[in-house]
What does this fold into?
Amino acid sequence: MTARLVAGPGVAVPAALAAIALAVVSWQAPLAALGAAGAAALVAVTLARADLLLLVLTAALPWEGLLAFPTETVTVVKLLGLLLFVAFVVRAAGQKETLRFPSTLLPVIALGILVGLSLVFSPDPAEGVAKTLRYLLFIMFFFLIVQLVRDRRAVLRAMRVITVSATVAAVVALVDWLQGEAGTRAGGPISDPNDFAYLLASVLPLAAFLFAQERGRRWLWGLSAIMLTGGMLATLSRGAIVGVAALAVWAIATRRIPLGGLTAGLATTGVAVLIVFAFFGPLIEERIAAKGRVASANVESRQVYWKSALGMAAERPLTGVGPDRFGDESDDSLPAGPAQAGGAGDQELVVHNSYLEILAENGVLAMIAFVAFLGGTWRLLGRARRISEAEVDVEGSRLATALQATLIVAIVSGMFLSEQLTVPFWLIGALATAVGGSELLARRPVLPSRHLVTR
It folds into this structure.
């Protein structure tokens, strides 16, 4: 029934009714008619092209900090997510698509259930509702990508969109930082510099893949890699830099990334640093010096946070202290000195370790579920790479390697930053199901010869 109303001759009746309604409104209130027309267009896109709406949501994610309206709770990103869910339901009802249940979906669902149980047994459930909803939103985001991104072409579209969006965000952050409007550290459209650095570092391998694969757009992806690197360095986030360093070690140790590609990556970093220092050397030295003055205090405070998180987990191993309650529990268990020196100030106190934060707030089973999700994602990508190499599918092998590289950055940086509720883990995990899904690996994709580049 739904399919008949949005396609073919059946679209005539609803279109006519909509036109009549708009005509009446236009006669009475032209501005209201313009708004109604925009809303009607949005509804039409929502019903007809869920895949396009997914790309819009993907592009909006790096800008979440600037899209906190109409309220800080009900944001543009959340509304887009709700629209995407509606679009998926309409599409599933009209086309009767078979739902996909990859192996990684089970630990993701388990994580959601365990976070919910942690909220129920929390000493203050009301305080943890917002963070629990964020978990549920990211789980829904993961589920929708799994259902809507079903082939390599869709994966590549999503990679291009997130790379371009993150690049523009990096440019904006660099401009603000160099003009002195962003304080000591660049934060871009994401308020926390660490979160912003984490996103840029995770997107870097995607830009490198696109640079190697799409020869006609190498200028674009090369510039993108430079801007992403510059933006990441401007955040002065050591956690993100450690993640990129771990990626370089993995690339050298496994020879997964050719020496030429690794050299190009190092050259990109060098170019970005030289360009910025050539024009803004004194300013950068001042920012680095300011960051260095609190560096040792930050290290000490994080060690205390990690010990505190382990202590909380030991006291409540099954359900944790409750979502978003690490800061409240720490008020009594942490000395004031390190927390203040660490720069917490009025900001939300976090563990600065994704895995320990889940362990402390949601319990050991929730942390096991999260790690199982990451391990399953790595396994899917490894399987995809091996099959692609056996079939001499160069693009497929490079794609799986690029997503593995991104996952390494996300996993390692997550040991020093609390990033379980940010884009990279969930986006890469979902795209891995499309790259490593059994239905796609059963046959070799047919690709134009110009996309096949020999090693």
In short: Confidence is low (pLDDT under 50) at residues 1-11, 292-296, 335-346, 438-455.
